[in-house]
Amino acid sequence: MIEVQNLRRCFGPVVAVDDISFAAGKGDVLGFLGPNGAGKSTAMKMLACFLSPDGGTASVCGHDIITDPVAVRRCIGYLAENAPAYNEMTVAGFLDFVCDARQIRGAARKQAVERILSICSIESVYHQTIETLSKGYRRRVGLAQALIHDPQVLILDEPTDGLDPNQKHEVRELINQMAQEKCIIVSTHILEEVEQVCNRTIIIARGKILVDSTPGKLTEEHGCSLTEVFRKITTTKKSA
Questions:
Q1: Among 27, 30, 136, 155, which is most exposed with the fewest C-beta within 10 angstroms?
Q2: Exposed (0-12), middle (13-18) or buried (19+): which is 12, by Cβ within 10 Å?
Q3: How far apart are the first and last CA of the chain?
Q4: What's the CA angle centered on 20, arms 184 and 33, to 5 degrees?
Q5: In the chain, what are the domain boundaries?
Q6: 63 Cβ contact list (under 8 Å, min separation 6)
Q7: Burial code of 187-207, b = ≥16 C-beta within 10 A, e = fewer?
Q8: How far apart (Å, rounded) are the C-alpha atoms in residues 168 and 187?
Q9: Cβ within 8 Å of residue 212, ≥6 positions away
């Protein structure tokens, strides 16, 4: 469902994403890991067609991110790192706006909204303005807009950021439930989360992919926890 070929992006003299290639298919929950500034969010923004690459390309569900970005956007649900939304809107108004953009109308809209309110547990704040919501509820509204059109591919940048332990558990369970039918990329700093929901792991640093494996294989090969594996790989490669 996702094919990435020699993707590259620079910001002035800084190479944020440096010639990365990988593929992910239906049933994959790919944990995208790396230190701050590694290039994770930049790579995800390019896959979601929010940034254009300086080199290489990628396809999502067979659609090229450069030549057919509108078709790519139809196929994906994208939760950005800070889950931007319109503060003056109510949750109801915001979800209506998203449905308009996604061309979800009539009975299909009613069903989509009812489904997503339950999935994301945001019924209690449905009529509140977004500026009045806690960070956790804002995150859940961001997740709702990413899921409302039931996309084939999900790109989730820190999906449980700001959530309490119970909410984190609910989101992880939701990812597990969706995993068989979708292709999901999850960027997170919570390595316990990767072990719970991901069947593949890519570790990126300084714009380059250092490892593409599974959480189980990494812990077995290195004989330590995933946290220690992450530190070992990112610090060793840095000093090398």
A1: 27
A2: exposed
A3: 34
A4: 50
A5: 2-81+154-239
A6: 71, 72, 75
A7: bbebbebbbbbbebbbbbbbb
A8: 14
A9: 22, 200, 201, 202
pLDDT in tens, 2-12: 999 999 999 99
- Selected from 3.40.50.300, 3.20.20.30, 3.90.580.10, 3.90.1310.10, the CATH number assigned to the domain covering 2-81+154-239 reads 3.40.50.300
Report CA 80 to chain centroid distance, whole Å.
7
Tokens standing for residue 123: 């019924």
- Tens-digit pLDDT profile for the chain (240 aa)? 999 999 999 999 999 999 999 999 999 999 999 999 999 999 999 999 999 999 999 999 999 999 999 999 999 999 998 777 899 999 999 999 999 999 999 999 999 999 999 989 899 999 999 999 988 899 899 999 999 999 999 999 999 887 888 888 888 998 998 888 999 999 988 898 999 999 999 999 999 999 999 999 999 999 999 999 999 999 865 544
Please tell me the distance from the alpha carbon of residue 161 to that of residue 63, in angstroms, as a whole number: 30
